Amino acid sequence: MGAIRQVYYNLFSRIYDHIIRLHSRDRQGSLRRFITDRTRVSAGDRALDLCTGTGAVAVELAERVGKGGLVVGLDFSSGMLEKAKQKSVKLNLAQVCFVQANAARLPFKDSSFRGVTCSHAFYELKGFEREMAVEEVARILEKGGRFCLMEHVLPEKLFLRALFYIRLFFLGSRDVKQFLRNEESIFGKRFKNIAKEMSPTGQSKLIYAEKGENI
Ligand SMILES: C[S@@+](CC[C@H](N)C(=O)[O-])C[C@H]1O[C@@H](n2cnc3c(N)ncnc32)[C@H](O)[C@@H]1O
Fold first, then answer.
1. HSE on the CB side for 128, CA within 13 Å?
2. For residue 9, which atom of ligand 1 is closest to its CA?
3. 77 in ligand 1 pocket by Cβ < 6 Å?
4. Which residues, including other chains, have CB under 8 Å from residue 124's CB and lie 6 or more apart?
5. pTM to 2 decimals?
6. Ligand 1, atom 12: closest residue by C-alpha
7. Rounded to an integer, what distance in angstroms lies between the CA atom of residue 212 and that of residue 179?
8. How many CB atoms lie within 10 A of CB 213?
9. Which of 60, 63, 64, 130 has its CA 20 to 30 A from that of 95?
10. Ligand 1 atom having least distance to the Cα of 150
C-alpha cells in the first residue's frame, strides 16, 4: 500500500502546483507565511518541513533561516522532491536540502531542529504513521522547539465533504474522522502549550505545540 501511495503522489507531483494555484485563494503565499511565522524559527536555525511536497513551505523557511541556517524538506515521493529541488535551485537557496524518507521514521539525530512544519499532509498519513511521526518529531526537536501542523478545515458543502473523506479513505487514512474529534490529543504527553488558530484565508487551521521537558 505504501508503494501505491508513493506512485499516486509521484503522478500527482506533475500537476500539484497548478492545482494548488487554481484551488487556493492564497495567491500571496499568506498561508506559508502563517505557518512559518508560528515556528519562531529565525536566522541561523535548523528547521524541518515534513511531507514537504513541492517544497513551498521549505522555501519560505529557507528565507527565514538565511544562508547561515539549514532547512530540510522531507517527503517519500521522489516526484514531489524533484519539483521541490527545481524550485530551490531556481531561487538559489543553498541552505535548503531535500531528503526522501517516511515521516514515521526520521533519519535525524535527537534534538537537531529548532522547528518542524507539516502543511496539508498530516490527515493523509495512516493512523499508526501519524502517531509514529509525532513521536519522531518530539525526538528530533530541541526542547522548546515548535511543531506546527496546518490542515484544511472540513468543507461545509456536503458534496465536497464527501469527496474529502473518499480521498482520505483511498489513501488509507480511514480513522481520520475519529482523529478530527480530538486532534490536539495527538501531541500527547510529549508537547506543551498546545494552541489552535484559523488561517487568514479561513480555509485552513494551524495546531502547534512546544516540545516539553519530559523527553
Ligand atoms: C497534499 S501533499 C502536501 C505537500 C506540501 N506540504 C504542501 O503543503 O503543499 C502531501 C504530501 O505528503 C507526502 N507524504 C504522504 N505520506 C507520507 C509519508 N508517510 N512520509 C513522507 N511523506 C508523505 C506526499 O508525498 C505529498 O507530497
1. 2
2. 25
3. yes
4. 51, 168, 171, 173
5. 0.93
6. 51
7. 22
8. 8
9. 130
10. 8
Count of structural domains within the chain: 1
For 101-125, how does the pLDDT look when each residue is reduced to its tens digit (9 = 90+)? 999 999 999 999 999 999 999 988 9
**Which tens digits make up the pLDDT trace of 144-164?**
999 999 998 888 889 888 888
Tell me the residue range of the domain where 140 lies: 2-211
CA distances 69 to 35, 88, 151, 194, Å, are 18, 15, 26, 26
Q: Is the CB of 76 under 6 A from ligand 1?
A: yes
Segments of 110-153 assigned E as strands: 113-119, 141-152
CATH number of the domain bearing residue 108: 3.40.50.150
The single residue listed with the C-alpha cell 524518507 is 101
**Residues 102, 78: contact at Cβ < 8 Å?**
no
Tell me the pairing of strands 46-50 and 141-152: unpaired
120 Cβ inside 6 Å of ligand 1:
yes
